[in-house]
Each structure stands twice: as structure tokens, then as C-alpha cells.
From TrEMBL:
Family statement: Belongs to the mitochondrial carrier (TC 2.A.29) family.
Annotated localization: Peroxisome membrane
Name of the protein this chain belongs to: Peroxisomal adenine nucleotide carrier 1
Solcar repeats: 6-95, 105-185
Gene Ontology MF term list: ADP transmembrane transporter activity; ATP transmembrane transporter activity
Membrane topology of this protein: Multi-pass membrane protein
Lineage: Eukaryota, Viridiplantae, Streptophyta, Embryophyta, Tracheophyta
GO biological process: fatty acid beta-oxidation; peroxisome organization
Keywords, in A-Z order: Membrane, Peroxisome, Repeat, Transmembrane, Transmembrane helix, Transport
One Pfam family it belongs to: Mito_carr
InterPro entries: MCP_dom_sf, MCP_transmembrane, Peroxisomal_Ade_carrier
Top-level taxon in the UniProt lineage: Eukaryota
Signal peptide bounds: none
Amino acid sequence: MGGFDMESLVDATAGAIGSLASTTILYPLDTCKTKYQAELRTPNLRKYRNLSDVLWEAISTRQVLSLYQGLGTKNLQSFISSFIYFYGYSFFKRLYVERSGYKSIGTKANLLIAAVAGACTVAITQPLDTAASRMQTSDFGKSKGLWKTLSEDSWEEAFDGLGISILLTYNPAIQYTAFDQLKQRLLEGKLGNPQSLSALSAFLLGAVSKCAATCLTYPAIRCKVMIQSAESSEDAEDEAEIKSRKTVSGALYAIWNKEGFLGFFKGKDHKEHMGTLSGYKEILAFKQKQKQLKKLLNKMDEAYIEIFVFHLGMVALQK
């Protein structure tokens, strides 16, 4: 393996462009979802009963454009994250195959490579993720720029939620377990017992297995949003109580204390819908760009296509 790895670069570029398009199209919905998740109040004092309340607030206060607050930072973070992840995943996979001498990669090795690529990605881009979340959860019309958002707090606070982000990179292990079981059942019922799935079948099974994994990890996702959220001018809590919510244990306690068990799953349905839409749009964008970039998809073996499309189907978690 010598020289410049053009194949990994093409993968990374195509994946990053697909992610960029998906992020931009769904951003207003993502802003509504994030502000809805970040609110922590007892049921009788809630400002937002559902996502439509967030949208109506933007319309009624003539701040519709504020639904795009933080879009530049989110796109920057999305592009860099996708590029690093796709490049790292493709590069480490190819390195493993060449060094091990195997013609294909096993499931366990594939999941380990995906986790390593994901952990490296979030460790590098976490400040951008934190800044984007704070911009989105700021009061409409009061969002600050990227540098001001990061510089007004310490660099340690710029990495808020890093532990949860790294933890969530292991989601593929949960998702693939469900995916593999569903895949085996589907293939057993097919005529001729084929050994691989179509791209559409892989995507659909990826979406179903993602929903199952989300149910297990969503409390951590809700905590991450709260930890990274901006302070609202309408918060009635004192400073000590607000700061206590910036830790995992403090966020968990606050959710349980004010919203009960169901509070851990606030906004889950909306996130699943966004995940499905985002994954579908990224697959379409990825395929279109990849056809233009040397038609690389035709060079991939069927097993790689299946795993690769599956990974695309579960994209959208890291938000």
C-alpha cells in the first residue's frame, strides 16, 4: 500500500458531499428537533408541546430565518466529520485487508474499524458539534457566530458531550446485530438462497435496525443535547442548577426529576423520521457523486456494497 490512496479519497469526498446536502435540506427540522429536546421543564410549564410549537414560535416572532441559525457551522462540522469518517473507514478497511492477507473483512473487524473511525472523527470535530448545538438552541434571533460561541467559554467546555459522542460510535455493534438477524431471515425466504441483499433491502433493514438501536441509546442522545445546549433567557433555575445539568449524571437526574421516565425519550419519534430521511437523501447523493467520480461503485464487491449502504442507512445519529 504505497502512494496516495485515491480510492479512499473518492469515497470520502462522495460521502461528505452527500452529508452536506442532507444536512442543508433538513436543517430547519433539525433546529426544531434540537430546541424541543433541549427544553427541560415540568409538563405544566412546557413552552414546546411538540415540534410544531417551535416552528410556530419562529413564524409568529418573524424569525423564520433563525431556523437556519448555525447552518454554516453545522455544514462545516458535517462535511469534515463525513470526510474523516469515510476516509478513515475506507483507509483502515483496505489497510486491514492488505496486511492480513484476507480477501474480505469479517463482521467484528468491520465494526471495530467503524468504531475507531467514528471515535477519531468525534474527537476532532467535537468543538464544532458543540458550537452548532449552542447556536441552534439559542433564543431565536440571538445566535452568535462560531468564534464568539466557542471563545466565550473555556476550551474544556467546547468538548462538552465528548464522552457520549464516543460512546455512540459503538451504535453499529448494536445495529448490525439486529441487521444481521433480519438479513438472515430475509435471505432464507428468497428463491435460490442468494448470499447478498439489494441496495434497497440493505437500506430498509438498516433503517429498522437503527430504530431498535436508537431505543437503547436515546437517553444518552437526549443528555448530550442538554449538555451542549445554550442557556435560555427564560430559564428560571439558578446558575448552580444549570451548571449541574452540564454533566451526564446531572442531566439524567434533571430529566428524571422534571419529566419522568418518558422524558428520556423526548423527541425520539422525530429523530427516527429525520434519520430515515437523512439516510435516504445521503444514499441518493452518494450514488450520484460516485458515478461521476470514476464509477467506483462498480469496482466494489457485493459484501462491501451491503455494509457500506447499511452504514449510510444509519447515518444521522451524531446530532
